Every structure is written in C-alpha cells, then in structure tokens.
Amino acid sequence: MLIFTEILICLLMKSHVLFTFLLCILLPFHSWAGWKITGRYIDKEGNTIFKRYFIQHNVIKVERYNLIYTCNIKTQSIIIVDPVNLVFVKTNLTAYTQKMRDIKVKRLNELLLLIPDNQKEEYEKKYNQQIEEEINLSKCKADSVLITQSKDSSKLLGYSATKYVISENGFKKEEFFFTDKVDISADLDFSAFLQYVYLLEPEDKTIGYLASSQNIGFVKNGFVLRRFIYSNGFRDEWQVNKIDHENIPDYEFGEPDLCKELTLDKFLNRQKSDDEKYYDDFE
What we know:
Elements: H1 2-32, E1 33-42, E2 48-56, E3 59-64, E4 67-72, E5 77-82, E6 87-92, H2 93-112, H3 117-135, E7 145-156, E8 159-168, E9 171-179, H4 190-200, H5 207-210, H6 213-219, E10 223-231, E11 234-247, E12 260-261, H7 264-268, H8 272-275
Parallel strand pairs: 6-12
Antiparallel strand pairs: 1-2, 1-11, 2-3, 3-4, 4-5, 5-6, 7-8, 8-9, 9-10, 10-11
C-alpha cells in the first residue's frame, strides 16, 4: 500500500511539472499573438483600394499601395514609407505635428500678405484656430454624435454582426456592422491611434466623429467589420475581408528594405507640385 501511494504521488508530481511546462510554452505564445487585418476600401467612383493592418502591443503598421506607416503608440515613434518612390522617414508624433504646424503657419503668413492690414488680425486668429483643428484631433470639434441600432444583422467572416447608424447633428454619417466576438483592445488603444491616422491620412474625414466619446466607448471591446460612409450624397465603403490572430514578427514594424531614408523636410517636400496647392487649406 505504501509503495502504491509513493507511485501515485510521483505521477502527480510529474503531471504537475508537465502541466507547468506546457503552460510556460503556451501562455507566452498567446500573449504575443497580434492581429493582421486585411480589407478593401471602395470609393464613390467605384475605385478599390486594398489596405492591411498589422497590430500588436500598440504598435500598428498600415499598408496601402501608395502609403505605408508604422506608429508605436507607447514611444510615439513613426516610420512613414513612400512605396512608389522607395523612400522613408523616421520621426515621432511631436516632431511630425510641429512640422505640419510650421508648414501651415508659413502658408498662412504668405496668404496674409494678400489681406488688407485692417483685416489681418481677424484672419490670423481664425486660421490659427483652423490650423490647430487640422493637426490636433482633440481640437477637432465632433458635435452631437448619436449611435442607434438598426433592425438589420448579418454574419460576416463567420461572426454575428449587428448594424448601427452614426449621426452627427442629425445627419447620417455612417452605417456599420459591429461584432463583439472579436476584441483587439488589448493590442490597440484605438483613441490614441486615431491621432496618427488624423495626421497621416488627412483625406479621411470620418476621424472627427470616430474620435467622439460616444463612438470610442461603443466600439471599445468589439470590432467593426463593414462600414458604409455617406458624404454629400455619395457613399464609400470599407469591408474587412480577413482577420488573422497571430504573432507579428518584429521585421514587419521595422525599417523597410530597399528604401532610402530621408530627413523629414526632404520627405515632405519630395512632391513639390502637390505642395504648391496650399491655398486650398484656407478656402
């Protein structure tokens, strides 16, 4: 009887050691797993733009055909890549924000030369406020935002999703399908990430209401699988095509191969023809 008891205790101890060993192996793998999200954007003219996100521990890489950028929300570092011209720049949120401010202030000063002296102060105050709203998301005023549930539901990518409508000042801005079966909040501070998108993708006019407290609180622990965006009587669409929950290798977030590094000034001035269109900022 004593021998049997000793054998049983030995087996239990070995089982415990094996369980602990497996736990040590599996838990880090699970905690390291990030997200790779692939989707497509269809604009009002029917043009399709494919887009991919790599997300892990608040480091996010965004890829599309003419722009790639990686932002580390913890360190505020940014890598921006021009994949067409094979150049890139390394910067940070503070430096990039200040550079955008400097460029816009320079353009404003040039514009003020054309304005009568008795109106300069008024215009300068107005446009300085506009500049801050254009580069600082917290200064962008999202007015009355309302999210209401629709009766429609769907199954997208195998996930049950419910349809909601976002309205701002009584105007419908967007319809989206939301699921609570996918939660990436452990790897993404969505509110902080929106500031980077606001700066690096200024053509996206939805960021203002997406950053509202109503929307941030609503989507915090779930995922938007499809969006229908309404503006001036037209509709754009964003659709997620694939979601992979997997470990993202470090090289995905590093400097790009085969690309030349530029200073921030040279990177922003690489297309002077576009830079000459600055008066549009103040129309």
